[in-house]
Structure formats: structure tokens, C-alpha cells
Amino acid sequence: TVIRDEVGLSLDKADKAVLGTAAKVVLTKDATTIVGDGSTQEAVNKRVAQIRNLIE
């Protein structure tokens, strides 16, 4: 889930259902890795494409 005012969702309005779950999250100064959310590989690939489009 993308939480940005531009898409109509701010962090103060997000609840646990919007934030989701993860088995493991690793944060570094350059990257965030989220592992084990229960998604299929197809769903992961689709989300990666969405995030890349937001970055561009």
C-alpha cells in the first residue's frame, strides 16, 4: 500500500489492515527489504512495477 497524501491516504488515517504484515523487515540507510508477506510471485512483480513507476 502506498501511503501518500497524493493518493488520498496519509499515515494518520492508515490502520493495520492497510499497513499489512511481514515476517521480517530489514532497514539500512539505502534500502528497505520486506520478507514474507504471503503474496504470490506474480503479485510481488506487479507491486515492484508499481513502485518503480512511482519513483520515475
From TrEMBL:
SUPFAM superfamilies named in the record: GroEL apical domain-like (SSF52029)
Single GO molecular function: ATP-dependent protein folding chaperone
Presence of the UniProt keyword Glycoprotein in the record: no
Keyword Glycoprotein: no
Keywords: Chaperone
Entries under InterPro entries matching the protein: Cpn60/GroEL (IPR001844), GroEL-like_apical_dom_sf (IPR027409)
Source organism superkingdom: Eukaryota
GO-annotated biological processes: protein refolding
Gene3D superfamilies: GroEL
PANTHER family reported in the protein's UniProt record: 60 KDA HEAT SHOCK PROTEIN, MITOCHONDRIAL
Family stated for the protein in its record: Belongs to the chaperonin (HSP60) family.
Protein name (record): Molecular chaperone GroEL
Organism: Nymphaea colorata (pocket water lily)
